[in-house]
Design a protein that fits this description.
Structural class: mainly beta
Shape: elongated
Strand content: over 45%
Number of strands: 72
Helix content: under 10%
Number of helices: 1
CATH architecture of one domain: Sandwich
CATH class of one domain: Mainly Beta
Largest sheet: 8 strands, antiparallel
CATH topology of one domain: Immunoglobulin-like
Distance between the termini: 118 Å
Radius of gyration: 41 Å
Length: 829
């Protein structure tokens, strides 16, 4: 897995001359990030090569430090990260994989679980006997037995939830299905000391959480609701609870305390009832959604719930309970958020439209112990959190741009080379920065799951694209994805803390730089300096005294505005320094913390006309305040007359913006566009056509300008003009009895243009017609099936003499009724 290590370091000598105290240290110099961060080193890293989109979503470890992984893959993937090949091929769009690796990262076995559609594993855990439990989603019919047997489950609708049990060799034990006709999703799973299974996620509409022959339906109150479900060790339902409100509510992570009380975290919108029983315990979020923690007892009964949020978007993504009974919640947020659910407040603020990471510590009564922030001007996200026996905290996820991973007063910044890069962060139990390790490359990478073995080695699973260097130290260990995205596993070893200590006492008028890291304030700072082997270190304690005046200014401006700092007009969020000289010759520094707030974006729409009688409601959007052109301050404005309308709005940062819209004129509604009421002969068809409008809706359902009317009644037409004004008109058609046929009793075929032909006059629509004429001896002398063609008094081209002739006429109307007439007609010459 690991090649011979290539060092990025070199040997250097430096001296720091203090007030009468020279100090000379000889060290191996790496980059600043390598020098100060490398208290971990790469043990191994492996990639599972495929040719499509693959990801490891969850891992777990056993007591022997073996690694178990699950997620999803497409097409064909080689699950042996070593020189061997062990290919699995998906049955459908995406299949679940389940794999085991030994402590050195070598493949033990790998299994695929799939069907025609798609499936994904999202969480995995082990019981004390080493049995494997996996949960996730599936769509369609899926065979959950990876061996030669077949055990198929079929989803009720789109995505359903599964929970499966396998023995330690990946052999199938049982599989259970949960869900309803729409989308259901499971994110996490955990076992208690008795082997009972708890899992959580979210569901839509109605879902059955009894995997057996019984039915236990939960119905969502809105878009999606949270569920928490408990099964016994055989996979049978013990209880299932739902939490939620009218909008989307989501659960991401689940935990248990020593008494097997259940904790769930995620986020919710609007108002949600967190008491799954007959009681009500409502929490209300900001419009962008807040985070929550809810606590149930082992029977699924409500104990307590709190929220964290404010004028921001807060997304709780991971939960962990340590051995001292403290709860750690990690996630990301955008804007201003209060993480103290009690009477006090603990507000953090991230850059506008970019997410920072938060880590909060609570006791079991949800009292805040501390909250920390990690981030920068770009986005950062956290996916998993773990604690060790000393209650140190480990997190993994990804970061973009430049991020400060030290949540304290000092800074420890990393700059991503990709979009984004993978990180692992360690804090001590007080939330103080210990170290951070990054795996970097030019494309996407993210850690999704993190676990610790008994020796506090760290294993991470996730996905990456392109080429990534998985060695966070001075060496390089690059893996390259063969497909669009690939599965990776990475193991890091923590370095022992046996280090030589050195102290530097520095006095300076100005800032002081040590290993490319510059300090601007008096204080005591600690550095870990590595040797060429990546672990043995020297601890340098820097006691820095800066004899200067520092004034900090917190300034806020809105987009489009400027603030004078660092000698010029600034319009970007950042920290700016202005340095002046004091009488003593030291610097007087003004530190400006400048925040640029986003301006609101009100929208009134395009200029338009107003239809006669129409009331137009102008709604620019949701903001903190409104000022219309008439000095009114309502969120909406009612328009009934032409004119120009202007609104100025302000958001929560008191940034203002305006929008304008003009109503040009009042347009009359279409009216009297149908003809006057008309009669209709039985069996006839009346055509009415109304041109000149954009759209038409007749009472018959027709949407064309014209219709054919065959029956009496009232007909109405609604039209929309090209100015979008709508009008309706009505016409009444009255049926009258008309003489269906008129047959002349004589005709004069003398070519004078008058009465030259004999034919019936029919006053209705017909489908079939026949006319026959006979002479006195019964000879057929004329026949026609064309109603327009009459007899001209000739037979075989010869004029017939004046006489009485016998006619027969038959026709059928459009309703299928036949009419038959016969009689005499006199031919006169």
């Amino acid at each position: 897995m690991l090649p011979a290590r290539q060092t990025k370091c070199g040997l250097i000598t430096f001296s720091n001359v203090m007030k009468a105290v020279p100090v000379i240290l000889t060290l191996f110099l790496c980059s600043a990030a390598d020098l100060l961060a490398q208290t971990v080193k790469l043990d191994w890293a492996g990639s599972m090569d495929g040719n499509s989109y693959d990801a490891c979503r969850a891992i777990t470890l056993d007591a022997e430090r073996n690694v178990y992984a699950t997620g999803y893959f497409s097409s064909t993937v080689d699950f042996d990260p070593g020189p061997g090949v062990f290919n699995l091929s998906s049955s459908g769009a995406e299949d679940i994989f389940l794999s085991k690796y030994d402590p050195s990262g070598k493949l033990v076995w790998a299994k695929s679980i799939g069907g025609f559609r798609y499936q994904a594993g999202y969480a995995i855990t082990l019981d004390i006997s080493g049995n494997i439990f996996v949960t996730g989603i599936y769509f369609g019919t899926t065979d959950f037995d990876p061996g030669p047997g077949v055990t198929e489950l079929t989803s009720n609708g789109n995505e359903d939830i599964f929970v499966c049990k396998y023995d330690n060799n990946g052999n199938f034990t049982w599989a259970k299905s949960f869900g309803g006709p729409t989308n259901d999703f499971c994110n996490d799973i955990i076992l208690d000391r008795f082997g009972n299974i708890y899992f959580n996620g979210y569901f839509e509409q109605t879902a059955d959480f009894d995997p057996g022959p019984g039915v236990f339906n939960l119905a969502s109150a809105g878009s999606t609701d949270i569920f928490i479900c408990k099964l016994n060790s055989s996979g049978n339902l013990v209880w299932a609870k739902k939490i939620g409100g009218p909008l989307s509510d989501v659960a991401f992570s689940i935990g248990l305390d020593e008494q097997d009380n259940v904790y769930s975290t995620g986020f919710y919108w609007a108002t949600a009832d967190f008491d799954p029983g007959p009681g009500v315990f409502n929490l209300s979020s900001d419009a962008l959604g807040d985070g929550y923690i809810v606590k149930l007892n082992n029977a699924g009964n409500f104990m307590h719930a709190v929220e964290m949020g404010g004028n921001s978007r807060v997304r709780n993504s991971s939960l962990k309970i340590d051995k001292t009974g403290h709860i750690y919640i990690a996630g990301h947020f955008d804007g201003e958020a209060d993480f103290d659910p009690g009477a006090n407040s603990q507000v953090l603020m991230s850059p506008v439209n970019d997410d920072d990471i938060f880590i909060a510590k609570y006791d079991l009564a949800f009292n805040l112990v501390w909250v920390k922030q990690v981030g920068g001007p770009s986005f950062q996200k956290i996916f998993d959190i773990e604690t060790d026996d000393a209650n140190d905290i480990y997190l993994t996820g990804h970061y973009n741009g430049t991020a400060d991973f030290d949540p304290g007063a000092a800074e420890y910044k990393l700059t991503a080379t990709g979009d984004p890069d993978i990180f692992v962060l360690k804090l001590n139990p007080a939330g103080t920065f210990t170290w951070v390790a990054a795996s970097t490359g030019p494309f996407y990478g993210s850690g999704y799951s993190l676990k610790l073995d008994p020796a506090k080695n760290i294993v991470i699973g996730g996905t990456y694209e392109g080429t990534i260097d998985f060695d966070p130290g001075p060496g390089e260990y690059k893996l390259t994805a063969a497909g669009q995205s690939e599965i990776f596993l990475q193991k890091l070893k923590q370095c022992p803390n046996a280090a030589q200590a050195e102290t530097l006492n520095i006095q300076s008028c100005t800032s002081y730089t040590l290993y490319d890291k510059t300090y601007h304030a008096t204080g005591t700072y600690t550095h870990l300096v590595l040797n060429a082997f990546g672990c043995d270190s020297i601890i340098i304690t820097l006691n820095l005294t800066i004899s200067r005046i520092i004034n900090t200014v917190n300034a806020n401006i809105c987009q489009g505005e400027f603030y004078l700092a660092a000698g010029k007009l600034q319009n970007k969020t950042g920290i700016y320094y202005d340095t002046l000289k004091t009488a003593a010759g030291c610097d007087s520094v003004v530190v400006t913390n400048l925040t640029v707030w986003e301006k609101p974006k009100p929208v009134l729409g395009n200029d338009r006309n107003l239809c006669e009688g129409e009331t137009l409601i102008l709604d620019p959007g949701r903001f903190n305040s409104y000022l219309w052109q008439d000095q009114s301050t309502a969120p909406q404005f009612v328009v009934t007359t032409p004119g120009t309308y202007l609104v100025t709005v302000s958001n929560q940062f008191n940034c203002k913006a305006s929008a304008r819209m003009t109503v040009r004129e009042t347009v009359p509604l279409p009216k009297s566009f149908l003809p006057k009421d008309q009669p209709l002969c039985s069996g006839n068809v009346l055509n009415i056509n109304v041109p000149g409008y954009r759209s038409y809706t007749w009472s018959t359902g027709t949407t064309t300008p014209g219709i054919e009317i065959r029956n009496a009644g009232n007909y109405y037409l609604t039209v929309t003009g090209f100015d979008n004004c709508v009008g309706t008109d009505t016409i009444t058609i009255q049926e009258i009895k008309c003489i269906p046929i008129g047959i002349p009793n004589a005709f004069t075929p003398n070519n004078d243009g008058k009465n030259d032909h004999f034919k019936p006059g029919i006053n209705m629509e017909i489908d079939d017609y026949q006319l026959r004429v006979f002479n006195r001896v019964g000879q057929l002398i004329f026949y026609s099936k064309d109603p327009a063609r009459g007899w001209d008094g000739r037979f075989k081209g010869q004029q017939q003499s004046s006489d009485n002739y016998i006619y027969q006429v038959s026709f059928r109307d459009i309703n299928g009724k036949w009419y038959n007439y016969s009689g005499n007609v006199l031919l006169i010459r």
